[in-house]
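Example 3.2
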Amino acid sequence: MIQNNQQNKNKRGAPNYMAPELFEEDGVYSFASDIYALGCILYEMAKGTPPFYSDKFQELAKKICNENYEPIGDDYSDEFKDFCNVLLRKNPAKRANWKAIIEHSWWNGHKLPSYDI
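Structure, written as tokens:
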């Protein structure tokens, strides 16, 4: 659990799936941080490990915020790899939004709800 000392509020979540912005002092959960977590889950399903891992919280936070994850590999389609890449962008403003997700070629015609977010 991470504490925001300034406002004395708790941030909750599984650290391996937390978006980089959540490690900032004023970082807040948003739809973009949920999209990042989705990318982590898909990545782990493909690779067997989360994009970043450490037994030490501070080390994990530094990896999530500053390092690149290991590429998924050639066993998966370029569309899937690109989909994970747009979900795992460190900058939330450049991360895929819901519209980009439902229009991404990896979905290949699968229908998802359209939300105005």
